[in-house]
Amino acid sequence: MQNRFRKSRTGPGSRPVVRKRVSALRSVILVGFMGAGKTTVGQALSRRLGLPFEDLDDRIEQRERKTIKQIFRDSGEAEFRRAESAALQELLSELGSVTRVVALGGGAFVQAGNAALIGEAKVHSVFLDAPVEELLRRCEEEPVERPMRRDPKQFRELYETRRQSYMKAMVRIETGGKDVETVAAEVAWSLGLE
Ligand code: S3P
C-alpha cells in the first residue's frame, strides 16, 4: 500500500468485499486492528462526505488529560478499557443528533459491551481489514508507539484473537495493497454514498 496509512496525530477502484449494502446519513464508525488505517481513511472519508472526523483515542486523551501511553503506563490496560468505554458511550450519545466519521482504537470494538452499544446505535460499522503482515509492516513504519504492540509474534496472535470480533461489523473492506483514497471511496460506495 502506498505510504499514506500513517496514523499521525498531528476514483473508486475495484469493488470492495461487502457483507451488506446499507443506506446513508448515519455516522460511520471504523473498526479494525492496529495499522488498519482507521484514522487516515477516516480523515479521507470525512473530507469525501463533508462530515466531521473524530478519533476516539483523542477523546479519551482529552477526558483523562493523559496520553494513551501514559494511561497504559500509569494505570494498565483495564483502566484504559474503562476510560475507552466511557468515552465511547459519551460519543454515541452525541451521534444521536450529529453525524460524524469516527475511528475507534484497535481494541474498542473487541469489548463485547462496546460492540453491543454500537450495534444498538443508528450508525454504520465498517471493518477495515488487511493481511496481518501488512498491518505489522505499517505499524513498524509509523512513529506512533502502541502499548498493545510488543513484538511480531504477539501482534500476529492478538490479530487472530480479535479478527472474529471485527467481523461483526456491518461491512468489511479489504485495504491490503490499496491507497487511502481508494479505501475511502470503497467505504463510501459500500454504504451507498457513491
Ligand atoms: C489499541 C489500539 C490503539 C489505542 C490503544 C489500544 C488496541 O489504537 O486505542 O493503544 O488495543 O489495539 P490504534 O488501533 O489506532 O493504534
Entry summary:
The chain is an alpha/beta fold and 194 residues long. The protein contains seven helices and five strands. A five-stranded parallel sheet has the order 2-3-1-4-5, sandwiched between helices.
Description:
This protein is of the alpha/beta class. It has a single domain (28-190), classed as Rossmann fold (3-Layer(aba) Sandwich). Helix content is 48%, strand content 11%. The protein contains 7 helices and 5 strands. It has helices at residues 38-49, 56-64, 68-94, 112-120, 132-141, 152-166, 180-190, and strands spanning 27-31, 53-55, 101-103, 123-129, 171-174. A 5-stranded parallel beta sheet has the order 2-3-1-4-5, sandwiched between helices. Helix 1 (38-49) packs across helix 7 (180-190), helix 2 (56-64) crosses helix 3 (68-94) and helix 3 packs parallel to helix 4. The longest helix has 27 residues, at 68-94. The protein is globular, with a radius of gyration of 15 Å. It binds shikimate-3-phosphate. The site of shikimate-3-phosphate has 11 residues, from loops.
